[in-house]
Amino acid sequence: MSGQGSAGNVIAALCSFFIPGLGQLLQGRWIKGAIMFVAAAALWFIMMGWIVHLWSIVDAAMFKPATNKR
Question: Is the pTM above the cut of 0.70?
Fold first, then answer.
């Protein structure tokens, strides 16, 4: 995926819209995706899961991979 605003980030954000953390998994960020999924699932029991759900969508959309420039 290119950078912020790329089609890959839009797809990742859409995936996170349906399942929190799925967009991060598609971007190769396994640990962050798993944390977001578990946190959203746990917080939905007290009606606060929407916070992590929205954070997951925004994080996937704004992801910019690190580049190694020399």
Answer: no
